[in-house]
User: Which sequence fits this backbone?
């Protein structure tokens, strides 16, 4: 009799497991994506609980529910929208100013050993310098405001794009280059068919990293060289002790960074359909 009960229980457990697996398989998200979505939700719940039970001082760590209400208020009155638009405009300008010369010079350095020998010492010397430390000098040259912020952020982004592009060219398998020559691919055809596709994965890695760095430096420069933008908004919120405003600004910056990174990755997937989708990024 007990054996029959155990068999029934096992069948019931198997049925429940199969039904759960069937439900999960019909969801548009993978298990890894569900975990990625669940972890920030759990973090917010834990944060809310620690504030509500008094483990965190609400004066310095407002509850997420309070921050969300403030965020909605700032969006409705236009304050956050206006400052976000200003920061995005500066970020776009800085990124374009970095990406175009960064990719072009990186390709040339990867293809031409002589040019690489000339540029490599200069890049090695300038790359480690914290670009935000150049902001006072850049303000003297370009003045207080947009141009100084854009130039500072673009210099930061430029080097990471340049180095990744050059590395992408240098890592192309020599066998592929020899095969292209055997098929009489020369000049632009060889560049377009072999070099550019071979370097694309690292070019997009550089673009993704460069965009993130440009956002960070844009925000940091707005603390010093501007009276608008998300950086200035956060600094001003700290000065008037509106901590919930600061956290609202942090959330917007995080969302912007996530969306921009996702956008670059999706563009890379579209332009490089041969790339494995399960590559660790």
Assistant:
């Amino acid at each position: 009799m007990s054996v029959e009960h155990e068999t029934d229980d096992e069948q019931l457990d198997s049925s429940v497991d199969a039904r759960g697996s069937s439900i999960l398989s019909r969801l548009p998200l993978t298990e890894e994506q569900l975990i990625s979505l669940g972890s920030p939700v759990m973090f917010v719940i834990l944060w809310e609980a620690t504030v509500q039970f008094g483990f965190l001082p609400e004066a310095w760590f407002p509850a997420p529910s309070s921050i969300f209400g403030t965020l909605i208020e700032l969006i409705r009155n236009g304050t956050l929208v206006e400052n976000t638009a200003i920061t995005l405009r500066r970020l776009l300008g800085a990124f374009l100013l970095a990406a175009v010369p960064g990719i072009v010079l990186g390709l040339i350095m990867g293809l031409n050993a002589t040019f690489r020998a000339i540029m490599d010492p200069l890049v090695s010397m300038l790359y480690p310098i914290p670009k935000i430390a150049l902001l006072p000098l850049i303000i003297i040259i370009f003045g207080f405001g947009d141009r100084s912020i854009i130039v500072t952020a673009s210099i930061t982004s430029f080097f990471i794009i340049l180095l990744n592009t050059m590395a992408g060219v240098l890592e192309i398998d020599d066998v592929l280059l020899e095969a292209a020559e055997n098929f009489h691919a020369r000049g632009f055809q060889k560049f377009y068919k072999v070099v550019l596709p071979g370097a694309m994965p690292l070019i997009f890695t550089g673009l993704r990293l460069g965009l993130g760095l440009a956002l960070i430096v844009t925000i940091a420069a707005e603390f010093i060289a501007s009276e608008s933008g998300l950086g200035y908004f956060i600094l001003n919120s700290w000065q008037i002790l509106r901590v919930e405003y600061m956290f609202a600004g942090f959330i917007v910056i995080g969302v912007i960074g996530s969306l921009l990174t996702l956008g670059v990755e999706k563009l890379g997937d579209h332009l490089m359909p041969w790339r494995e989708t399960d590559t660790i990024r």
